[in-house]
Every structure is written in structure tokens, then in C-alpha cells.
Design brief:
- This protein is mostly helical.
- It contains ten helices and three strands, in the order H-H-H-H-H-H-H-E-E-E-H-H-H.
- It has helices spanning 8-16, 19-32, 41-53, 82-113, 119-142, 152-162, 165-177, 226-229, 233-240, 246-258; strands at 184-190, 195-201, 213-219.
- Helix 4 (82-113) runs antiparallel to helix 5.
- Residues 1-41 and 51-55 have low confidence and may be disordered.
């Protein structure tokens, strides 16, 4: 494996890993195409390691897996209904996982056979299903029956970036509500400017601020809310704030700031 494409501290991390985690990390970085990015490699690596350690990324064979929910399907009632959770997690998210595994296999086959005639198609599939898989993995973690508390550092950054939590909530809701068609609202940390940003991803594979790291995401594709809220996206977004697991969001952000 050519370690020259990785930051030096990542090489050291790989050398200390056991075989299982080594294979997991290689598979992940091979798919995501990690390269040297001055100033953010530590955050990206630590974020990836956290995802791996939670078992949210790939299995022993190197295939991407559907993360299990850490709470019951009906735990978010009455804000998000059980039937939607089952369909969203077990059907829609699983579809992204299967699509990502298929695209990864096709790309590996193309590399092996040096046959790149339709590589553009499989790159698009990799981006679409990969973005869907990883954003949904964050989405499930973002929510829970217990809201928890925002950490001091997260509260400080929310106030510094948006003036107040109420201003952030209003802005985040407006951004998510204004997504055209299917997509996401995203609270992200932008390490280049050391501040928080609220972004739209109208097609989740086309998020434009590539160095931004998602902290809190809301799925505003209709499959996330239509059974309960029909076309009332705003009501769904309001309900979402009742099930945000701020402790999980805070831990994600605190981890990034420490590294």
C-alpha cells in the first residue's frame, strides 16, 4: 500500500492497528480517496476512526454495513412514527448500503481489468450511495429519546457563528425547509474558518464545501416524513428538534476540536 498519499500520522496509526482495523481503515480510505489536506487531516482521521470503532462503516469482509439503531423504532414517537422509522432505516438506508457495495465492487473490478469505459457511471453511483449511507448513519445517531445537553464548546461555537441558539434554530429550519426537492439540511464544522456553517445538500452527493465536516443532519427527502406529515415539511422540521440527541452532536464536535 502506498502510504505517500496519507498524512504521516495516519501511517503511524495504521502501523499500530490490528489486522481487522487495518483492513477496515484501508477499505474506508480507498473508497473515500483520502489525500493530504493541510490543517484538517487530523480531524478527518479521528472522525473516521470513531466511525470505525462504532462499527458503523464496514464488516470483517470489507463490505459496508447498515448500522443498527441504538433505540427502538417507536422511541421517537410522537414526533417521528414507528412505521416511517422502519421503512426509512430498513428499506431506504439499506438500499444505499447495497448500492455502495455494488459500486465499490464494480470499481475494484474495473481497476483490476483496466476497463474504464463506464467508470463515470460507477463513480456517480459511488458518490450517490456513499453520501446517502454516511449521512444516514449520522442522522440516526443525531436522534434519540433523550435529548441530552449541548457541550460548552458547542454552545460557544453556535453563539459565535449564529449569535444565539434560537437564531441558529430559526436559520437551520429555514435552510432545511428551502431545500429544493430531495436533500438535507446540515450543521457542519468548517475547519478552514474555524466556525460552524449551515449548508444545503439538494443532492446529497453534491455538498460543495468539501472540507466541512457534518455534525448534525436532517433528512428532508419525503420518505423521512411523508407518512406522518404529508407535504408539511416545516412541521416535520419543528418536530425534529424534539428528538435531537445533543449529547451525540456535542461529542462529535468536541472530538474534532480536540484533534
Amino acid at each position: 500500500m502506498n502510504f505517500d498519499i496519507f498524512p504521516f500520522n495516519f501511517k503511524s496509526e495504521l502501523e499500530r492497528m490490528n489486522k481487522r482495523n487495518f483492513l477496515k481503515t484501508c477499505a474506508l480510505t480507498g473508497t473515500l480517496g483520502l489525500v493530504k489536506i493541510n490543517g484538517i487531516q487530523g480531524q478527518i482521521i479521528k472522525y473516521m476512526e470513531t466511525m470505525i470503532n462504532k462499527g458503523m462503516v464496514i464488516d470483517e469482509s470489507g463490505k459496508f454495513i447498515l448500522p443498527e439503531l441504538t433505540y427502538a423504532y417507536d422511541a421517537l414517537e410522537p414526533y417521528i412514527d414507528e412505521q416511517t422509522m422502519r421503512l426509512h432505516h430498513d428499506v431506504h438506508h439499506l438500499g444505499y448500503v447495497n448500492g455502495l457495495n455494488n459500486a465499490s465492487a464494480k470499481i475494484k473490478e474495473a481497476i483490476k481489468n483496466k476497463d474504464f469505459g463506464i467508470i463515470k457511471h460507477w463513480q456517480r453511483e459511488l458518490a450517490f450511495h456513499g453520501a446517502g449511507h454516511f449521512l444516514h448513519s449520522i442522522f440516526w445517531e443525531n436522534m434519540g429519546p433523550n435529548k441530552g445537553e449541548r457541550s460548552g464548546i458547542l454552545e460557544e461555537y453556535i453563539e459565535g457563528s449564529f449569535n444565539s441558539f434560537d437564531a441558529f434554530k430559526e436559520y437551520f429550519s429555514a435552510v432545511a425547509g428551502a431545500v429544493e426537492g430531495s436533500g438535507w439540511g446540515i450543521l457542519a464544522y468548517q475547519p478552514d474558518s474555524d466556525r460552524l456553517e449551515v449548508l444545503q445538500a439538494e443532492k446529497h452527493q453534491n455538498l460543495s464545501q468539501w472540507t466541512a465536516i457534518p455534525l448534525l443532519v436532517i433528512d428532508v427527502w419525503e420518505h423521512a416524513y411523508y407518512l406522518k406529515y404529508q407535504n408539511k415539511r416545516g412541521a416535520y422540521i419543528d418536530a425534529f428538534f424534539n428528538v435531537i440527541n445533543w449529547e451525540a452532536v456535542s461529542k462529535r464536535f468536541d472530538m474534532l476540536r480536540k484533534h
